[in-house]
Automatic annotation (TrEMBL):
Annotated GO CC locations: cytosol
SMART domains named among the record's database cross-references: HTH_ASNC
Protein name (database record): Lrp/AsnC family transcriptional regulator
UniProt KW keywords: DNA-binding, Transcription, Transcription regulation
Cross-referenced Pfam families: AsnC_trans_reg, HTH_AsnC-type
Organism (species): Candidatus Limivivens intestinipullorum
Coiled-coil stretches noted in the UniProt entry, renumbered to this chain: none
Domain HTH asnC-type: 6-68
Entry's Gene Ontology BP terms: response to amino acid
PANTHER family assigned: LEUCINE-RESPONSIVE REGULATORY PROTEIN, TRANSCRIPTIONAL REGULATOR AZLB
SUPFAM superfamilies: Dimeric alpha+beta barrel, Winged helix' DNA-binding domain
GO molecular function term, any single one: sequence-specific DNA binding
Taxonomy, superkingdom: Bacteria
Length: 152
């Protein structure tokens, strides 16, 4: 496996948590053949090492009436990069920000309650970003495959 330091037992525990993060230590232990206490210890070690970052509920915005989800590709001047990133991080509609290679320096995802709210986000946050050279926007029409985190 490509993750050094993760043995087969840890990988199986992580696989089970990916399937169901609410699975009890006892249920995991029964599935992998170790005690509940051993499972708890292994999971805590994975958390302390930063391999498991969090447990969360994922909401599908497309299932909420009227919600709009968009990806932006934003090219910024290097001298304004940090300032623009800070402005994006502060906005509650911005869900993901990635620094990427190539011409576009940021890949940004946003979700709003409506098309009007997305237009307002673009007009008030995205368009006036300091040092913006170019910006492309893609509205997500449907989710075909969406894997959260790393699959082992």
């Amino acid at each position: 496996m490509f993750l050094e330091g993760l043995d087969e037992l840890d990988r199986e525990i992580v696989r089970l948590l990916i399937e169901n993060a609410r699975m009890s230590y006892s249920d995991i232990g029964q599935r992998v053949g170790i005690s509940r206490v051993a499972v708890k210890s292994r999971i805590q070690a994975l958390e302390q090492r930063g391999i498991i970052e969090e447990y969360t509920t994922i909401i599908n915005p497309q299932k909420i009436s009227g919600a709009v989800s968009c990806y932006f590709e934003i090219e910024l001047r290097p001298d304004t990069f940090e300032e623009a990133v800070e402005l994006l991080k502060e906005n509650e509609n911005i869900t993901q920000i990635y620094r990427v290679t190539g011409k576009n320096r940021l890949h940004v995802h946003a979700v709003t309650a409506s098309g009007e709210a997305m237009e307002e986000l673009i007009r008030k946050v995205i368009d006036p970003l300091p040092g913006s050279v170019s910006c492309g926007c893609n509205v997500i029409l449907s989710r075909i495959k969406d894997i959260k985190g790393l699959r082992l």
